[in-house]
Amino acid sequence: MAEIPTRLPPMTALIPFEAAARLGSMSAAARELGISQPAISRHLAGLEADLGQALFIRTRRGLQLTAAGRDFQGAVAPALEQIRQASGRLRPGFRHRTIRIAANFGFAQQWLMPRLPGLRRALPDLFLHLLTSDREEELGQADCDLAIRFGSGAWPGQRAVKLMDEEAFPVCSPAYLAEYPALCHGDFAAAALLHMEETSAGWFTWASWFAARGSGIRPERPRLLYPTYPLLLQAALAGEGVALGWRGLVDGLLAEGRLVQLLPGLRRSDRGYFLCVPNRQAHASVRAVADWVLTASDRERAPNGA
Question: Could you read off the pLDDT of 160-203 as tens digits, one per residue?
């Protein structure tokens, strides 16, 4: 069986071919590409000679594709469109309008996602790319323009502005509280505690939360670990047990009555969520998004006295 020749056709002829095939006219293709009609004709003739196939039927009304021409257009047009899109993504103008925001899963779902419509209304010309991970080392290495990270605020190569302190407290569904009313008095003896898989972020765990509260409670080894905070919250909403809730992340669920705060929160002012921008020069679009996030956070913290 003969091998299909792998030599490429004249590359300079592909764009004129695609334009002429799409527009059905050499003169229209010439106007779109800003070259002369004879130049279009020469490109098409050279391409047909190289392929050994007639690609067009010339008529007084313009150009019609032959069967070979339609087959070739089906390969050339998508390839050129992919090249256009890839080139556009690499050009500075597009990169400056595409803002990559990194955050952990809990913050991304519970704080950022409900506010994205407002951000898009405020900055309608921007494209947003959301990156998520619960591992601090991955957020630190992410190729992003902005990151919302949890910790002390001291990260090399980053300018960090605090959005909120860490404040954690027990939460459960109203139905679960009705089943275990002693929870309101801090009696967790009969309750199921929901645990998230520990990560490098250093959030409160049940053990560290009870210890910081001065309680003698030592949680048993968890039988189930949830890999992300959204999954743990889903279990709490379904009445599976008691979860730790973080101020700023569960406020909406509390306001809707879907979760109930059981005890006052414990705050660690030396830890919290920070908006981080790499030390390199930030483009105006990045600064605009950062300012919007900071303003939204300040506006929402004020009623809580934060």
Answer: 999 989 999 999 999 999 999 999 888 888 889 999 887 766 78
Give the mean model confidence (pLDDT) for residues 253-270.
Answer: 92
Give dist(CA 120, CA 142) in Å, integer.
23
Domains and CATH numbers, the chain: 11-90 (1.10.10.10), 98-306 (3.40.190.290)
Task: Tell me which H or E stretch contains 168.
Answer: strand 158-172
The answer to whether residues 303 and 183 touch, using CB atoms and an 8 Å cutoff, is no
Q: Is 14 helix (H, G, I), strand (E, B) or coil?
A: helix
Which residues is 65 bridged to in the sheet? 56
Long-range CB pairs of 90-95 (<8 Å, 24+ gap) are 94/127
d(Cα 219, Cα 75) in Å, to the nearest integer? 62
DSSP 8-state symbol, 276: E
Contact, 288 vs 120, CB < 8 A? no
Query: Confidence class of residue 139 from pLDDT cuts 50, 70 and 90?
Result: confident
Half-sphere exposure at residue 112, Cβ-oriented, CA atoms within 13 angstroms: 25
